[in-house]
Amino acid sequence: MLWIATLSYVGYSAGAIVCALAAIWVGGRGDETRNDRTPAVVALALTANWCFAAASFEPGKPIVELAEISRNLAWLFLLFRLFANDGRDETLRLVRPVVFALVFVEGLQLALLLIARQHAGAAELSAPILETATLFRVMVAVGALVLLHNLYVGAAVSSRQILRWNVAALAVLWAFDLNYFTIAYITAAVPIELDALRGWAAAIFAVPFAMGFNRKSSGLEFRPSRTATFRFLSLLVIGTYLAVMLALARSLDMLTGDLTRMTQVGLVIAAGALALIWLPSDHLRGWLRVTAIKHLFKHRYDYRNEWIRFTHTIGTTGFDNSALQERLVKALADITDSPAGILLVPEEDGTLELAAKWRWPSVVVPGRAAPAQLGELLERSELIVAFDELREGVDHHGEQALVPDWMRDNLNTWAAVPLLHFDRLVGLVVLSRPLVERELDWEDFDLLTVVGRQVASYLAEQAGQAALLEAGRFDEFNRRMSFVMHDIKNLSSQMSLLLRNAERHADKPEFQKDMLVTVRSSAEKLNTLLARLGRYGAPEPQKVHRFDLADAARQVAGKLGRLHPVAVLRSESVTVEGNPEALDQALVHLIQNAIDASEPNSPVILEAYSDGVSGIMQVIDNGRGMSPQFLRNSLYKPFISSKAGGFGIGAFEARELVRAMGGRLDVESREGLGTRFVVRLPLESATRIIERGRKAREDEVV
């Protein structure tokens, strides 16, 4: 076949060039103190000569066989000289008979060549001659490998540092020859595919062998990167798989007839399908990575590559324009090969709430994801929670009683990494279980702790930038308000002037007519100003009153129902404690936002009822809805609005008004489906119980 002949020619040519260059380099720059340098140069030169002959003539030519015999004899003599490297000359006396035996066996190849030349026309002798020649080569390769093993095992520690590169290269040389001639002996034919690779093998072997003669070879170590090791193992697995499939296909040759063809075709289809499904899988890649790291490396992590990947993940938004919080979760998850993760951040009262999800849509996180006590414990101890240990009952700092059930019961939760910035908890990243099962070890804890602090600094920096931006927006708002105050001052001046003139000219018809015009103009300006700003003004402090939540719902529905359909579908009498004016203002904000997001004829629904603990008011619309990202990051931020020209203060002020009454404002929204705001205020009876408990604690302290 043409491609095999081309591969063979190129390989032998490359082998000749590389071996010749290696011989020149060892002779000119090799270690002068080694007494085996000259035999090494000769062996490399004869190997280059053999490669040149194999590239120039057809396989089996006498000149090629003679070049190979001279090559093998030179390498056997070099092996004999390697035993004297650490001064063990007495050992040469024991090794000499074995080497002479191998030289004798290799010399028998000359006799076989003479016999083959004298009986060139006898076809019945070609097979026995080939079989005998390959058997002799197998014997030489096995004997040389045994000598290599004894050489390295019996050498002193200092000699091993010198010999290791040479021994490794010679082991590759004779191992390849052993496989080559073993296959030739079994099949009674020269394996042309392997024969095409012999030149490439010689070129590859010559490089490490020459490196062994470097003056600093004792300090040279082969340290492949994790990426190279992982890819090599991947290729090894794929190659093994293909070899097994090929062996199965060849074994089917024992069958006969149509059954053979049908079975082979079925095997090829099944093998291809299995390869497409199994070989590219994340589980296989994870298994290969864990296996390589466990058995080939001292440390689990390549810290340089981890740091480069971490900074790249943080600094690049990617095609999906992911937010910083999602990228922070991904950066931590990539370290442990976790396929998903979530970020929880503390609220003002210390409770942890969901801030971001990364590739974990199935996880169900409640509104209050974790209690404030858990955050305080993680803040003090900087504990990385291993959920497998937690489920087995291990308790390091009392976290057993504080970890919420939704984390414990979800078997996909694997680790929780606290994010500390100046010993203050700014977040908690929960990582999902890796595809390949393993336990967290000391190296995971150390690296995740360091990276967690780095991630916390990014979160703190983002919060600081947001605070500065918000302060700048407040400053801009104050500057705008100064113009409003200027207009109000002008109106006030006009009214004051009007009153002063009225004392002197109130009885004049002309003045009365001008006064009406001025008052009407001032009133129109004030109404316009109030219409623009009335909904965003700061509430005046009010005393707490008991009032009916259902009445409040009906009043606000009647007031805003003139502009847009507002329906009260559920109205139960619920007595709560709070500020009715503040609640009215908060509901106006929420309902007006619902009206703005809805179609003209789509009604806004109000519901007022009690769940036994709180009075609940719901504002429901079927409008545009809001995205999860906007809900998490922008809904309650002043001056950020989803409406064109909106101030972005309505939802923020509504939440603050409800909180001031001891209540809570929650929201659920889906884009294209609508939004539900839920106002929870304490019932009168619940307020009394809480107040009674507070007074009892104060009395105990006194």
UniProtKB/TrEMBL annotation:
<keyword id="KW-1133">Transmembrane helix</keyword>
<keyword id="KW-0597">Phosphoprotein</keyword>
<dbReference type="InterPro" id="IPR036890">
    <property type="entry name" value="HATPase_C_sf"/>
</dbReference>
<keyword id="KW-0472">Membrane</keyword>
<dbReference type="InterPro" id="IPR004358">
    <property type="entry name" value="Sig_transdc_His_kin-like_C"/>
</dbReference>
<keyword id="KW-0812">Transmembrane</keyword>
<dbReference type="InterPro" id="IPR003594">
    <property type="entry name" value="HATPase_dom"/>
</dbReference>
<feature type="transmembrane region" description="Helical">
    <location>
        <begin position="167"/>
        <end position="190"/>
    </location>
</feature>
<feature type="transmembrane region" description="Helical">
    <location>
        <begin position="135"/>
        <end position="155"/>
    </location>
</feature>
<dbReference type="InterPro" id="IPR014265">
    <property type="entry name" value="XrtA/PrsK"/>
</dbReference>
<keyword id="KW-0808">Transferase</keyword>
<feature type="transmembrane region" description="Helical">
    <location>
        <begin position="6"/>
        <end position="26"/>
    </location>
</feature>
<feature type="transmembrane region" description="Helical">
    <location>
        <begin position="233"/>
        <end position="250"/>
    </location>
</feature>
<feature type="transmembrane region" description="Helical">
    <location>
        <begin position="94"/>
        <end position="115"/>
    </location>
</feature>
<dbReference type="GO" id="GO:0004673">
    <property type="term" value="F:protein histidine kinase activity"/>
</dbReference>
<dbReference type="InterPro" id="IPR003018">
    <property type="entry name" value="GAF"/>
</dbReference>
<dbReference type="InterPro" id="IPR029016">
    <property type="entry name" value="GAF-like_dom_sf"/>
</dbReference>
<dbReference type="Pfam" id="PF02518">
    <property type="entry name" value="HATPase_c"/>
</dbReference>
<feature type="domain" description="Histidine kinase">
    <location>
        <begin position="483"/>
        <end position="685"/>
    </location>
</feature>
<dbReference type="InterPro" id="IPR005467">
    <property type="entry name" value="His_kinase_dom"/>
</dbReference>
<dbReference type="Pfam" id="PF01590">
    <property type="entry name" value="GAF"/>
</dbReference>
<keyword id="KW-0418">Kinase</keyword>
<protein>
    <recommendedName>
        <fullName>histidine kinase</fullName>
        <ecNumber>2.7.13.3</ecNumber>
    </recommendedName>
</protein>
<feature type="transmembrane region" description="Helical">
    <location>
        <begin position="196"/>
        <end position="213"/>
    </location>
</feature>
